[in-house]
Amino acid sequence: MKVIFTKCQKMQFADFWVKLDCCSSSGEVFEQMKRIPKPAYVCKTAVPEDLNDLTYGQLVELQGITNNEELFFVPCKVLLGLDRAKVKTGDAESVIGFVFWVSREIERINKLFESTNVKPTPEEQQARIDKLSFGPFGLIDYYALRMGITNHDEVLSLPWVRIYQCMKIDSERAKYERRLRKVYADKK
User: Fold this and answer.
1) Given this model, what pLDDT does residue 24 score?
2) Which residues contact 101 (CB under 8 A, 6 or more apart)?
3) What is the end-to-end Cα distance of the chain in Å, rounded?
4) Rounded distance between C-alpha atoms, residue 170 and residue 48, angstroms
5) From the CB of residue 152, how many other CB atoms can be counted at a distance below 10 Å?
């Protein structure tokens, strides 16, 4: 298996894809692939510096990746506009480096969004606040309501950074209001 991986920089992605599909120890190979650096280009298409210019809709598409096939083809389509046939003609090392860089960027963005979560109080936990988690649509609906947007599709076309900043502001505001209520309660 190490032979397949170490020679990936010398082959087209289509050839690597076939060999990877036949591999029984893909976990070991995936760990090695994660270390391939981000390329400047994939199939002669420039790779962005970071994913800060993504729309929320693009982010949702990338967060929805659930299998190996999507892992390799969806980022190329969503971010670079490359169809499956074009990706297969690309250099294996650049395609692999790109998709694992995208994975790291999505993890970074997910952590930012997670940082806006306000820890529930015991009373909120008892009332089952966890039942109010509605995934990406819940976030789209939250932002649409917050900003007075009537068409949810408009939210999908906005930069994810804008939505994150509003969530961060609302999170800080909620934490402040809890602290203030505690101050008032302690004075009684």
Assistant:
1) 55
2) 37, 38, 47
3) 69
4) 30
5) 12
- Report pTM: 0.86
Distance CA 9, CA 93 (A): 5
Both tokens of 171, joined, read 């999170």
* CA nearest to 166, candidates 138, 144, 135: 144
User: CA dist 149 to 12, 158, 176, 178, Å?
Assistant: 45, 12, 26, 28
pLDDT of residue 27: 74
Q: What tokens does 34 get? A: 């994660």
Structure tokens at 58: 């693009």
Query: For residue 56, with 0-12 CB atoms within 10 Å meaning exposed, 13-18 middle and 19 or more buried, which class applies?
Result: buried
Alpha-carbon distance of 97 to 95, in angstroms, equals: 6
Q: Which of 160, 159, 140 is nearest to 150 (CA)?
A: 140
Q: Exposed, middle or buried, 93 (CB in 10 Å: 0-12/13-18/19+)?
A: buried
Quick one: DSSP state of residue 133? -
Residue that has been written with the tokens 């971010």 in this structure: 79
Report mean pLDDT in 10-residue bins for the chain, 188 residues.
51 87 70 92 97 96 94 97 96 96 97 93 88 87 92 95 95 93 89
